[in-house]
Amino acid sequence: MNTEDMASLYGTPIWGRLRMYRNPFRMLFSAGVWASAWYLLSSLVLSLALFCVITSVTITSGALVIIWAGLPLLVGTAYFIRGCVVLERGRARAVIPEGLPALPPVPTAEGFFPTLTAVWRDRITQRGLTHFTVLALPLFLLDTVVWTIWVSLLGTITVPVWWRYVPQDYDGRHMHGLQFGYFPHGPHSKGAIGFFIGSDLSAAVAAVAGLVLVLAWNYVLVATARVHANSVRAVVAGRDPMAAARRVLEAPGPLSTSAGA
Q1: Could you tell me which of 136, 100, 105, 102 has the C-alpha nearest to residue 122?
Q2: Where in the sequence is the domain holding 229, given as residue range(s)?
Q3: Rounded to whole angstroms, how far apart are CA atoms 28 and 188?
Q4: Shortest CA distance to 226 belongs to which of 7, 4, 20?
Q5: Cα separation, 12 vs 160, whole angstroms
């Protein structure tokens, strides 16, 4: 039994590319950081859109049930939610290449009303609705904050290249520089609070500080991608608690031999 099988068997998630390295420089150049950045960016684009569409369609279908017109819409909504689940599973492969647990088959039944009952009793439909409505906004806010700070810190590293091209105007006095703080009358006036980049030395200090903060924030970025991927794993896809044991038994080795016997 290898390490991954043991970890999965005892409930520890296998994170694919989302590994945490003790060396911050190795962490910076690992695939997990950049895969996490792409995963969170795509989440910012899709999460809010799917939240609006699924929420509005579900509410509209439920409201139209009183005139029976909403019943076919409810069936279509359930299948649409399942399709969005498949989309989320595919997008999660950016950070979990091994994929998520297999989806159960689409529930079927004879007749319209049994089909309506079956698709809305389906665990994937219920968990998918929860993920795309209840969890969508908190995850969107978390992803937005973490990704924006990470990109801002990356930009800080490049400050020595472009700080001199940023114009500033203080009480009719024109100068160039970059301000981090509050400077109502200029960088050296009374009441100024913060750090002003107005020379190559101050720009170099800001770049070094940005690099240090990026090295630390990479762990926050990957941890956030883990949170998002784990919500997809647990709420949308679900988990088969015996999947790891089945993989171990089916893999070549003494356990598979004994199981066959």
Answers
A1: 105
A2: 3-260
A3: 36
A4: 20
A5: 43
Q: With 70 as the cut, is the pLDDT of residue 176 above it?
A: yes
Q: Which two tokens stand for residue 223?
A: 């941890």
| Distance from C-alpha of 208 to C-alpha of 157, rounded to nearest angstrom | 7
Condensed to tens digits (0 to 9), the pLDDT of residues 59-75 reads: 999 888 888 878 899 99
Q: Find out whether 71 and 257 touch, Cβ atoms under 8 Å.
A: no
- Of all helices (H) and strands (E), which one includes residue 75? helix 70-92
Q: Give yes or no for a contact between 178 and 166, defined as CB atoms under 8 angstroms apart.
A: yes
Ordered DSSP codes for 10-52: TT----TT-PPPSSHHHHHTSHHHHHHHHHHHHHHHHHHHHHH
Q: Beta-carbon neighbour count of residue 23 at 10 Å?
A: 10
State the total domains in the chain. 1
Three-state DSSP string of 190-256:
CCCEEEEECCHHHHHHHHHHHHHHHHHHHHHHHHHHHHHHHHHHHHHHCCCCCHHHHHHHHCCCHHH
Q: What is the mean pLDDT of the chain?
A: 82
Tell me which DSSP letter residue 138 carries.
H
Q: Is the separation of the CB atoms in 215 and 156 below 8 Å?
A: no
How large a percentage of the chain has pLDDT more than 70? 84
Q: Specify the pLDDT at position 4.
A: 40
Distance in angstroms (rounded) separating the CA atoms of residues 210 and 156: 5
